[in-house]
């Protein structure tokens, strides 16, 4: 198929050949760029998942700290703010 396209371009002159070559180069370059973007999107999705897990764990720890603070205050102790 590519050979047929190049043959048609050769029959239509130098500019047609240059256009076809540039077109195929652009297609190849776009495919490489697309692969990079897909890799980046997958990496970002993984990072977001990790951040959500960390956020959930921080919420649990924060809740535990508040419970401990309440228990200390109930017993009449002092809690310093950090």
Question: Which labels suit this protein?
Answer:
single chain, 82 residues, mainly alpha, 2 helices, rod-shaped
Radius of gyration: 31 Å
Outline type: rod-shaped
**Alpha plus pi helix count:** 2
Number of strands: 0
Mean pLDDT across every amino acid position: 89
Order of helices and strands: HH
Which secondary-structure class do the elements indicate?
Answer: mainly alpha
Query: Runs with pLDDT <50, length 5+?
Result: none
Instruction: Measure the end-to-end span.
Output: 71 Å
Proportion of residues in helical segments: over 70%
Largest sheet: none
Note the beta-strand portion. Answer: under 5%
Summarize the structure.
87% of the residues lie in helices and 0% in strands. By secondary structure, the protein is mostly helical. The model has no long low-confidence stretch (mean pLDDT 89).
Commentary on this structure:
- It is built from two helices and no strands.
- With 82 residues, the protein is mainly alpha-helical.
- The chain is rod-shaped.
């Amino acid at each position: 198929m590519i050979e047929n396209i190049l043959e048609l371009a050769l029959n239509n002159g130098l500019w047609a050949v240059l256009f076809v070559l540039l077109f195929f180069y652009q297609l190849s370059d776009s495919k490489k760029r697309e692969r990079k973007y897909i890799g980046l999107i997958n990496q970002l999705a993984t990072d977001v998942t990790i951040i959500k897990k960390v956020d959930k764990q921080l919420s649990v720890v924060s809740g535990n700290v508040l419970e401990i603070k309440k228990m200390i205050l109930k017993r009449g102790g002092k809690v310093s703010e950090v």
